[in-house]
Automatic annotation (TrEMBL), chains A, B:
Cofactor needs: pyridoxal 5'-phosphate
Organism in which the protein naturally occurs: Kistimonas scapharcae
Protein name, as recorded: Alanine--glyoxylate aminotransferase family protein
InterPro entries, A to Z: Aminotrans_V_dom (IPR000192), Aminotrans_V_PyrdxlP_BS (IPR020578), PyrdxlP-dep_Trfase (IPR015424), PyrdxlP-dep_Trfase_major (IPR015421), PyrdxlP-dep_Trfase_small (IPR015422), SP_NH2Trfase/AEP_transaminase (IPR024169)
Domain of life assignment: Bacteria
UniProt key word Repressor: no
One Gene Ontology term of the molecular function aspect: transaminase activity
Domain Aminotransferase class V: 34-338
Record flagged with keyword Zinc: no
Family membership noted in the UniProt record: Belongs to the class-V pyridoxal-phosphate-dependent aminotransferase family.
Length: 392, 392
């Protein structure tokens, strides 16, 4: 056995995440490790909490990063809020809604599924029907930005409906945080989780979460212990709470937290709303370019995510061959379709640091080259021209 | 709000973990992020699996790092192996045995507690009594190296007892892996978890785990789904299994895995047995030094961990003042006592990269300075002399 140091190739990451990481962030990641109970580290934790509150637009005191990827953030929300027998209305319009249902079941809840078409927003009419039909439902859960399809749902409306029926809300914002409008307090979201590796352009492995006072009240009123020690928010609060002495819970992933702190400093420097606008600009350029060579988007314009673009693969074009060519000849990663869309769409991410003019232009030109090789018929150079016109 | 980049101080980490990180590892951490489904990343994952098998001395095919800290690794073992009503014999001789009991309860198991004195090894006689008294017990769980007290238990004997009573074993090796003898296959351990931030000297945030075929059979024979989606080994196997196509489960913490890969490359270069010997050597030097200035160890010699040294705080010496002085004047972190030992012991870690002659000598000299300030009576310089004699 002779295994030596691993030196990864340098890729441009325009898939569904991880996205391109700002070099400032990888530099922060490699700063000296200090103890997780060091006074300097605790000061950093306080700042980090403030920065996450800024990104989420919330004053929620229970706002912190879970020490694990977005899937664990999802689990933190469901494990803490769902109790045996709780009825939870789960909206499914893609892969991640399905995972929410799994979570409800594993924690003893009773899921009521509201299906919407994949590639479309969650249908508020269907949600209102379900809320009316199930007045005993305790929670409404949905995905704000479906990473598997590129569809954006109207979180504000869905949360208003939930409040009107006395339901708490659990919202997946893994792909939305930092990339498009998200307003936890104004919209009245009760529990929210996200990921570090999408529009924050941080390395993968952390999941910012936030809980409203109503959510905390439900957690504090639980009859049974949370079916997880690692994700029990009542214990995690003792470590992140900031009220008096920190109680040791688990060893924090120190260096990753440096990286998230740096990512959020960068977001704050740019300004949250400016970051949303930047994502929208590059989305307009990318989609103008794609349209100019006859490629269609999966999601109708009004329900489209700007940070994740699901492009319909034209007939006769070999999905895997194109993605391989982009990766091997251009070091460019774009995403495959997931679930029902495997082989049918590409997912082109414009997230965080990857949402840039140079990335849009080089992606379009690489894609043109790959499509040419596939015998797909279009007028070469038109995508670049159309995208450049948006930037002009 | 003006929060700027966080620049941590440079500390010497001689507490209970995280330990000093080898600069090679922080450099690896900052290498370019690539996609978690990139062919190059998947090749790295295969190597990482082989390296973890090497460190654990196992051929177990289900061997991989959980994408979260050691507490999540613990939870992965209990969530998957314990089913509703399973009787689990849990040995408690410190904080982490108590956490095991919490895990058993949260996953619906029935814990049978075998208490041993804190600061001592788990008593095999008591364990055998419990196994005899509870022939229906399914699992024996214990901590190999109790980080809270510095006691080492005889894992080989305990596992043999368990096998004799047809019990699976779950063993906490968070602090033992890489620091002292650990032999998963020879000892017949069925489920084991560890941490990246102790004797592997990697950054905190990952938990290497390994499951025997007997453990996998129990997981595959479960009547109910695991009460966690994130930690469900039957799903994680699909991503790490290496048999055919990788199924997407969650986004791997890419950069942290680079770091763990590098940490294990370093271990392999040194040689596992050489690393154990190095830890033992510096332990002998440290304890000789401490004894020379009249400081006593908490744990009897034969049950003592070499990588974590619990030192009794002499009467009249202010625990917090000494630790503060070490941290502020010497940038040296040592650990406080946990639980029943708060204020009564210091925990001095000699883990991984921190197990070095220069660390032993500078820790002893800083400690002498701090004790002098406290009015503790001893002959100055004796600790350095005694430690140096070991190295001579």
């Amino acid at each position: 056995m002779t295994i030596t140091s691993f030196h990864p190739p340098r890729r441009t990451l325009m898939g569904p995440g991880p996205s391109d990481v700002n070099p400032r962030i990888t530099e922060a990641l490699s700063r000296p490790t200090i103890g997780h109970l060091d006074p300097e580290f605790i000061r950093m934790m306080d700042e980090l909490k403030t920065l996450i509150q800024y990104a989420f637009k919330t004053q929620n005191r229970l706002t912190l990063p879970i020490s694990a990827p977005g899937s664990a953030g999802m689990e933190a929300c469901f494990a803490n809020l769902v109790e045996e027998g709780d009825k939870v209305i789960v909206c499914i319009n893609g892969v991640f809604g399905g995972r929410m249902k799994e979570n409800v079941e594993r924690f003893g809840g009773v899921p009521v599924v509201v299906e919407s078409e994949w590639g479309r927003a969650v249908d508020p009419v269907k949600v209102e029907e379900a809320l009316t039909e199930h007045p005993d439902a305790a929670i409404l859960a949905f995905v704000h930005a479906e990473t598997s399809t590129g569809a954006l749902s109207d979180a504000e409306t869905l949360c208003r409906l939930a409040k009107g029926h006395d339901c708490l809300t659990i919202v997946d914002t893994v792909t939305s945080l930092g990339g498009c409008e998200l307003n936890i307090d104004q919209w009245g979201i009760d529990a929210v989780y996200s990921g570090s590796q999408k529009c924050l352009s941080c390395v993968p492995g952390l999941s910012p979460v936030s809980f409203s006072d109503a959510a905390i009240a439900k957690i504090n009123g639980r009859k049974s212990k949370v079916k997880s020690w690692f994700l029990d928010m009542s214990l995690i609060m003792g470590y992140w709470g900031g009220e008096g002495k920190r109680a040791y819970h688990h060893t924090a992933p120190v260096n990753q937290l440096y990286a998230l702190h740096e990512a959020l400093c960068i977001l704050q420097e740019e300004g949250l709303e400016n970051a949303w606008e930047r994502h929208a600009l590059h989305h307009r350029a990318l989609t103008a370019g794609l349209a100019a060579i006859g490629l269609e988007m999966l999601v109708p314009e009004k329900e489209r995510l700007v940070q994740l673009n699901a492009v319909v693969i034209p007939e006769g074009v070999d999905d895997a061959a194109v993605r391989s060519q982009l990766l091997n000849a251009y070091n460019l990663e774009i995403g495959a379709g997931l679930g029902a869309f495997a082989g049918k769409v590409w997912r082109i991410g414009l997230m965080g640091y990857a949402a840039s003019k140079s990335n849009v232009l080089s992606c379009l030109s690489a894609l043109e080259a790959a499509l040419l090789k596939q015998g797909y018929s279009f007028k070469a150079g038109e995508s670049i021209k159309a995208a450049s016109a948006i930037y002009a």
